[in-house]
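Friendly challenge for the regulars: who can give me the C-alpha cells for this chain first? No prize, just bragging rights.
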Amino acid sequence: MTEKASDTERATEKWGDAAIAGFQTLPDILLKKQVELGLSATDMLVLVNLTLHWWYRDQRPFPRSATIAKRMGVEPRTVQRSLKKMIDTGQLARVEEEDEAGETRHVIDLSALVERLELYARQDEHFQYRKNKAKAA
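First reply, four minutes later:
Bragging rights claimed.
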C-alpha cells in the first residue's frame, strides 16, 4: 500500500471484503465524548445508523425510524425516543426540505452535533499533534 493510501484502501486493508460492501467515517471524538454528550448506548447506535445515510455534508439523511429499528432489533418507538432526545438536547434538528421532485421530506440536520464535536476535538490531546503533522506533510 502506498504511503498516502485512500480511505477505501485503508479500510479494505483492515476489514477486507466487509469494507468493500461499504464503510463510513466517524470521528473518534464522538466515541470519546459520548458520556459528556449524554448519549446512551442506544443513542449511539441510532446515531451511527443515522450517519450511515449521511454521505455528503450538504445532503442531510432521512432514514425511517423503522429501518433503523429493524437493523438494531428494537421497536421503531425506541429509535423515535432516541432521536427526540438528541433533538431536544440540541444535538440534532429535524428540518423540512424539498427533494429533487419538489416533494417535502423531513431530514435530520447534524450540524449542531458537528459543531459540538469540533469544540471537543480542539481540546483533545491528539488534535494539535495530528493538525501539526498534517501541516508538515
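The mean pLDDT is 91. Strands lie at 93-98, 104-109. Your move, everyone else.
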